[in-house]
Design a protein that fits this description.
Blueprint lengths: L1 E5 L3 E8 L11 E9 L1 H11 L4 E6 L5 H8 L4 E4 L6 E8 L3 E6 L7 H14 L5 E5 L10 H11 L4 E4 L2 H12 L8 E2 L3 H8 L3 H9 L4 H12 L4 E5 L5 E5 L2 E5 L12 H14 L4 H16 L19 E3 L1
Parallel strand pairs: 1-4, 1-8, 2-6, 4-5, 8-9, 9-10, 10-11
Antiparallel strand pairs: 2-3, 6-7, 11-12, 12-13, 13-14
InterPro entries: Carboh/pur_kinase_PfkB_CS, PfkB_dom, Ribo/fructo_kinase, Ribokinase-like, Tagatose/fructose_Pkinase
Keywords: ATP-binding, Kinase, Nucleotide-binding, Transferase
Family: Belongs to the carbohydrate kinase PfkB family.
Length: 321
């Protein structure tokens, strides 16, 4: 089973405007939708739609509107009761396919709530499961909270993937580099997060990849793998993705098409990789599945997570580096 932890879930509200967004202007909404979200929830939703066993673990009160929406989504989940409300993240989509995100920080967890969340995660896992730690940390959680979970899960023979950024990502890297925790089995940074890990400029890395120059991202991904990360999956937007593992390094191009919303694309790519992993596919196939899921996600409105019938896996687009 693949278990996801969303430490800072969100009510994802997506509004689509009738005209381009202009700061200081008055705008009209053409579409408005709200769903239970968060990076781990999105990963679990993709896996569940593909028929794989998954469980989303997250903090949310029983009477929170988020909990009701999640229950209506028919997604296997386990909530840890907390006193504060789940945050709301606002995504504004305006012509021509421009996405603007406005995210709340989330309500602070108490030390007792944080401990209960960690206990729930460990109680849900068994040897042979895979745990994906996804997204930002709720206020009140220390920056090294993910590092602590990885160490505990590895001691229980449970492999772990991580998709996060900023302070939690920096704290995790510092911990594994100092041998205070094991490195994750899977890391799924975008170009900006890769820059945070390596000191490089993420925008430059992605721009180079879009021009076909993959040496900067390849070197950075291989360096992280050499530091102990089992698999480094770097998502590069329109330039596809690069994967570095013990078996080799590959690039998979993305098929161009209409972009309706980039929200959830990284989560979908992570789910695609995990879906292929749990089905025993080789690394190049895992990369192709990751890119296919990410590509399908950007062609869908709002935070819609693609179903298997909306995904076209192109293994012919993968090449070894």
């Amino acid at each position: 089973m693949i278990i996801t932890l969303t430490a800072n879930p969100s009510l994802d509200r997506t509004v689509t405007l009738t005209a381009p967004l202009v700061p200081g202007g008055v705008h009209r909404i053409a579409e408005d939708a709200t769903q239970a979200g968060g990076k781990g929830v999105n990963v679990s939703r993709a896996l569940h739609q593909a028929g794989e066993d998954t469980l989303a673990v997250l903090p949310a009160g029983a009477q929170d509107p988020f909990t009701a929406l999640l229950a209506g989504a028919d997604l296997p989940h386990r909530t840890v009761p907390v006193a504060g409300p789940v945050r709301t993240n606002l995504t504004v989509v305006s012509p021509p396919g421009v996405t603007t995100k406005i995210n709340e920080p989330g309500h602070a967890l108490t030390p007792a709530e944080a401990e209960t969340l960690a206990t729930a995660l460990h109680g849900a896992t068994r040897p042979g499961d895979f745990v994906m730690l996804s997204g930002s940390l709720a206020p009140g959680l220390p920056a090294d909270w993910y590092a602590r979970r990885i160490q505990e899960l590895h001691e229980a023979a449970v492999p772990v993937g991580v998709d996060t950024s900023d302070a939690p990502l920096a704290a995790l890297a510092a911990a594994w580099r100092a041998d205070r925790c094991a490195a994750p089995d899977l890391l799924t940074p975008n170009a900006e997060e890769l820059g945070q890990l390596t000191g490089a400029d993420g925008a430059t890395i992605e721009a180079a990849a879009e021009q076909g120059e993959l040496a900067p991202v390849t070197e950075a991904a291989r360096a992280l793998h050499a530091q102990g990360v089992g698999a480094v999956l770097v998502t590069l937007g329109a330039a596809g993705a690069v994967l570095a593992t013990a078996e080799g390094t590959w690039h998979c191009a993305a098929v161009s098409g209409e972009v309706l919303s980039t929200v959830g694309a990284g989560d979908s790519a992570a789910a695609g990789y995990l879906l292929a992993r749990v089905r025993g596919r080789e690394e190049p196939e895992r990369l192709a599945c990751a890119v296919a899921y990410g590509t399908a996600a950007v062609a869908l409105p709002g935070t819609t997570i693609p179903r298997p019938d909306q995904v076209a896996v192109r293994e012919d687009l993968v090449r070894a580096l």
